[in-house]
Write a structure and sequence with these properties.
MetI-like fold, 2 strands, flat
Amino acid sequence: MINKENIITKDMFAPAHVDPSKSEKISKPSLNFWQDSWLRVRKNKGAVISLVILAIIIIMAFVGPLITPYAYDTQNTKHNNLPPRIKALENVHWLPFDGTLKRHNGVEYNAYEVRKVDAYYWFGTDNLGRDLFARSWKGTQVSLFIAFVAALVDMLVGVSYGAISGYLGGRTDSLMQRFIEVIVGIPNLIIVVLMILVLKPGIIPIIIALTITGWTSMARVVRAQVLKFKNQEFVLAAKTLGASDTSIVFKHMIPNMFGVIIINTMFSIPNAIFFEAFLSFIGLGLQEPNASLGTLVNDGFKSMIAFPYQMIIPSVMIALIMICFNLVADGLRDALDPKMRD
């Protein structure tokens, strides 16, 4: 018995009806390079979470010192070395915000009640009675400012130097690269320490010291990109149309390496923060009463056994900033690299 459903008829071979008005319709919206990169960044959960944490830290660096009634440089020796105490959380005993400390024999006591202090210090106080909440956020603000300015100077100097070296080529390129090798050959720490000793510790001397050698890696990366682009078609077309060398480098080449520049800049920011903290820790950073995360760690290290919170809080801040910046930079590297497209 023949099943009617299996019978092949001539109607099955009729051409399908196509609506001419919809034949050229694009179902997916057109995206430019940056929109496509942002979509790929959003797929990286670590980078997105790190961006949120960094946004909160940056906002708090400016807002934090304003929401506490205590100034970051105001001393009150009667309230020195008080542990963290937060009004809404002081009755939650499993959280370290109830104002308790441990004596050397291990007995816990409420420092605020013993010393009859009717106040709340969210991060506690240091040995001079200064509010660590205000000092921590002020120190974060200073450290981020130093790191961002140093990274910006590194980017401007490194991009210009590397682009000129790679584009001119020949003997000029050779001499410029030998100069970089001389700078890189000298230990970075020695240059920074000498510069700070000559200029005296401060924000500007630290930025200058960080930028003396920090631009070399950016210059080498940009030079390599310029050498790759120099003989490509769009550069030859610009030369044929009579574009100047400056226009070719800064209007045609550098926009095509924005991804590499941004990624290297993002990686240089946590390096600058760590180096500034290291300089402050060994006593070559900011001087009192100014604060940075490095100076706070240095101050807390002196009383680490008796009052560990004084070092733990700024140390956690440094670790968070460095981890988040590295995760964001790693996510941007995957998003901006054409070879990583899925």
